[in-house]
Amino acid sequence: MGNLMGSWRYKEPSTVEECDSTWETDSESDEHQPGGEEEDSGISESMSPADAVRGAEQLDHGSPQSSTRMKRSFYAAKDLYKYRHSYPNYKELRQPNEYRNLRFYLNKIPLVPDGIYIEEILTKWRGDYEKLEHNHTYIQWLFPLREQGLNFYAQELTQDEIKVSKRRFLLAYTIMLDFFGIKLLDKNGNVARALNWQDRFQHLNESQHNYLRITRILKSLGELGFESFKLPLVHLLLEEALVEGTLPNMRHSALEYFVYTLRQHAQRRALLRFAQRHYQPPENFIWGPPKKKRIPASGSTVMKAGKNEVVERSVGKARSPREGRNNLEREADDMDERKSGEWKTAKGSMVLQEVRGRVDLEEYIETIPL
């Protein structure tokens, strides 16, 4: 997988604005990394460290917001910033014979402290919602990360262990989706409500500790080569929370955490624009683009070398700086809509897609070696 940072020098962020590059233009960010992964920090609503700590206490994984003016959580922003930048300053100190994650996924050792092998979980735990709910040790073994979790027996993931069994990982993912009331439709990661969605969504709306699990699963998807699976899942959860009203308690976790696990700027922007259209009350939506800065007097607009063709074309056609910015924003919106089109499938076509996708998915998983 490699380090996405390259020669970029890591600077510890101290504010939310330093953690969030979501609203940078494509020309300044997405073109630097394969697939548009994040490289540099951008701008958003400014917040001091003291305010950020208070915001983290008030707005953290499903907790209600008591303050009249909502603020973004600095804790959440910093955590996801480090994840999207592949854990800067992370050092692997273990020897290959200590790779517990890999050995667990190869079914050679059980998870600690319960002594359960992965094959038992994959073959016997599906649909056992009581066990999946109340056991708090398995999740960090099934979805490893390069960060320490609550189960100190589980080791942090290493670069070599990222080669864990893709087949077993996908099976573990489908088990957890079913626990949440969701089903995986195809090998592209598209998801939909499962048959048991009503009971499971009601439970998910009330058991907010599962939002921490979802954040971990999303992170692990990106670590183990399934980055493309995040977008459909986060979009579904946002739709259920903001449009359908089935998961109202999830909306802040989805916006503070789930969205920001996606490494591509354009995908995050598309999700946030979708959320902004449906968020109530709209004046409390704090995840949108920063307030526009005043455009300098005519003749002072300078284009950086390497700007992509959308930016150059927009400014080139403009008769004034203001018009140029408007054209740029419109074309950037269009670009986001095109990039995010993979999950904007009409609901009427989902049934046919599901029938085809389920067969393809089963065949696909079977072809992946253990």
TrEMBL record:
Skewed-composition ranges (Basic and acidic residues): 314-345
GO CC annotation, single: membrane
InterPro entries hit by this protein: OGF_rcpt (IPR006757), OGFr (IPR039574)
Region (Disordered): 1-68, 314-346
Domain Opioid growth factor receptor (OGFr) conserved intervals: 95-293
Compositionally biased residues, Acidic residues: 15-29
Pfam families on file: OGFr_N (PF04664)
A GO term for molecular function: opioid growth factor receptor activity
Membership in a protein family: Belongs to the opioid growth factor receptor family.
UniProt-recorded name of the protein: Opioid growth factor receptor-like protein 1
Organism of provenance: Sinocyclocheilus rhinocerous
Gene responsible for this protein: ogfrl1
